């Protein structure tokens, strides 16, 4: 990880850009240093370096010490101690807000639905759905997207969420939960027909992400409409049922049935 990456992560945890630079400079010095040296090492302007160091001292990320010439010098809180403190503060804030925010939130006028216009937005929102699941989780997914969500799906299974996954492609998901490899129809046939990789993620049958990845683009929707989420869950459940039937009676028998039953032919007819 580069120094720039470190600075960006510190800012995500609440430090300003100058504070992050000054803290990294203190850590890198390995000894007490004065404000002039912090400015020289960090690039923080000399006109603001003492104000910045004061903010680090106020948040407990640095300490003032007296140097040999009785001048004020600064030492950083060790990185491990800083990160432990940040984690405690963050966890405490999340715990407090978990109970406080719902009390101030207005009831929505309608069920939330919004578009997702790129791959990262899709995966981030799908991760939110997985993280929010408490009872059951239905997922239909290809390996490329599962690699991004695997850890969160495994965490959901670890907190006793009933996980059901339809796994497409050459790298079937081998994690916990009820996993069904999509073999009927063959994944390559599905991809040829639809021209994109479908993703469906449904948490507790109350919220869902549905979309597609293909040709270097991604698109889809998030919805908290329980009717739409229920339909998305039923889509995955019926696909699972089809995989089980294909395993039990054989793909050839299902092909024969689909080819000879008029009602199935009507429903499956392509326009």
TrEMBL record:
<feature type="domain" description="Transcription regulator TrmB N-terminal">
    <location>
        <begin position="10"/>
        <end position="80"/>
    </location>
</feature>
<protein>
    <submittedName>
        <fullName>Sugar-specific transcriptional regulator TrmB</fullName>
    </submittedName>
</protein>
<dbReference type="InterPro" id="IPR036388">
    <property type="entry name" value="WH-like_DNA-bd_sf"/>
</dbReference>
<dbReference type="InterPro" id="IPR002831">
    <property type="entry name" value="Tscrpt_reg_TrmB_N"/>
</dbReference>
<dbReference type="InterPro" id="IPR051797">
    <property type="entry name" value="TrmB-like"/>
</dbReference>
<dbReference type="InterPro" id="IPR036390">
    <property type="entry name" value="WH_DNA-bd_sf"/>
</dbReference>
<dbReference type="Pfam" id="PF01978">
    <property type="entry name" value="TrmB"/>
</dbReference>
């Amino acid at each position: 990880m580069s120094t720039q990456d470190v600075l960006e992560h510190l800012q995500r945890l609440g430090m300003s850009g100058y504070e992050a630079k000054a803290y990294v400079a203190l850590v890198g010095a390995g000894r007490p240093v004065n404000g002039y040296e912090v400015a020289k090492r960090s690039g923080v302007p000399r006109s603001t370096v003492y104000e910045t160091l004061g903010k680090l001292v106020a948040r407990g990320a640095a300490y003032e010490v007296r140097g040999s010439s009785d001048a004020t010098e600064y030492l950083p809180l060790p990185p491990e101690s800083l990160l432990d403190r940040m984690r405690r503060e963050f966890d405490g804030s999340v715990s407090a807000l978990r109970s406080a925010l719902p009390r101030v939130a207005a009831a929505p006028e309608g069920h939330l639905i919004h578009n997702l216009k790129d791959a990262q937005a899709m995966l981030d929102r799908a991760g939110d759905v997985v993280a929010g699941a408490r009872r059951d989780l239905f997922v239909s997914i290809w390996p490329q997207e599962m690699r991004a969500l695997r850890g969160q799906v495994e965490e959901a299974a670890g907190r006793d969420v009933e996980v059901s996954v339809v796994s497409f492609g050459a790298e079937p998901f081998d994690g916990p939960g009820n996993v069904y490899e999509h073999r009927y129809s063959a994944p390559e046939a599905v991809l040829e027909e639809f021209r994109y990789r479908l993703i469906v993620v449904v948490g507790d049958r109350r919220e869902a992400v549905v979309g597609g990845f293909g040709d270097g683009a991604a698109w889809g929707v998030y919805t908290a409409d329980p009717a739409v989420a229920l339909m998305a869950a039923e889509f995955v459940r019926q696909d699972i049922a089809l995989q089980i039937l294909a395993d039990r009676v054989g793909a050839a028998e299902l092909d024969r049935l689909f080819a000879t039953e008029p009602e199935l032919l009507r429903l499956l007819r392509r326009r």
